[in-house]
Each structure stands twice: as C-alpha cells, then as structure tokens.
Amino acid sequence: MDQAIHKLNVGHYTLDIKVSQLLERVVRLDNRLSDNEDNIQQVSSHCKDNRKEIGRLEGCLKGRKIGSKCVLAFRTHETYADASDKCQERGGRMAMPRDRKEQEAMAEYVKLVFHGNWPVWLGINDQHSEGIYLFEDATQVTYFQWRKHFLSSQPDGGKRENCINMSSDDGDWWDTYCERRMYYLCEFDV
C-alpha cells in the first residue's frame, strides 16, 4: 500500500511539473500573441495613415486646386453617408464650398468631369435641424447656390430631403434624400 501511495505521489509530482511547464509555455505564447496583436494594430494604423496620405496626394494630383484645398470628383454612386466615409478614408472630407468663388470653381470642375446633368454630393446637410444647413465640419453654411426656377425652386424637400447635391450642368444646389446614390466630390487640404 505504501508503495502504491509513493507511486501515486511520484506520478502526481511529475504531473505537477508538466502542468507548470505547460503553464509557462502558455504564458510565453500569450505574451507573444499580445506583442503580435500590438504589431498588427500598428501596421493597421500605418496603413490607414498611408491611405489617407495617398488620397490627399491623389486629390491634388488628379483633381483641381481651389484656394487652400484640392477637390476630386468620384464616379461611383454612394449614399451621402457612404460618400462622407469614403472621403474621410482618403484623408479628406466632402466638398464644402464656403463662398461664391469656391462654389464657381467647384461648379466649373464638376461640369468638366461629368458631362451632362448629374447630381454630385456636397458636404452640406440639415439633418440635425430643419432649415439650418451645416457643412461636414459642423460649421454653419453662409453662402448658398440654390436652384431658382419658377417651376421648382430649392430647397423644397422639407424634412424628407436633408442632404445637398450640386447639379453638374449649372452648379445649382438641390436638396434630396440622403439615401439616394450619386457621384460625390471630396476636398483635401493642400
């Protein structure tokens, strides 16, 4: 009986050593995994920063410089929110014509890019408060280029149409549903 107990104790001791060694290995693997997760996050952050810088450079190389910013039109149909996200992913924001000079320059550029009458998202909306138009950076819009026509003057959508697009043929602004898919215009700091 003593010999059986001794044999069990030796087996238990050996098992304890193996469990301790296994736990040490698990801790080392956990530390390596944590280090790798940190490295992955750093690489992801660098990739995101690089995408933004590439977008900014592309905006200035392929688009048009207007004052202290560059604008670039994109020929993919996106909702207002998706267009805003895509501009931010590229290191910019949706275009915000702050005065008549910028508006006219953007309208001229958009007319050259999109032949015909195509709506193009601008970074302007009144989603937070009806009739109070804000740029993407939350500053209030003070210059407007609303479509004026005896049949359909803008804005005319009330609480249904809260996002603003520019018509590519004449540069006039229209309010429309934010979920509508259309081309968009990003701006980038020079």
Automatic annotation (TrEMBL):
Keyword vocabulary terms for this entry: Disulfide bond, Lectin, Secreted, Signal
Q: SUPFAM superfamilies per the record?
A: C-type lectin-like
UniProt-listed GO biological process terms: ossification
GO MF terms listed in the record are: carbohydrate binding; growth factor activity
Keyword Transmembrane among UniProt keywords: no
The compartments listed are:
Secreted
Q: Which GO terms describe its cellular component?
A: extracellular space
What's this protein's name?
C-type lectin domain-containing protein
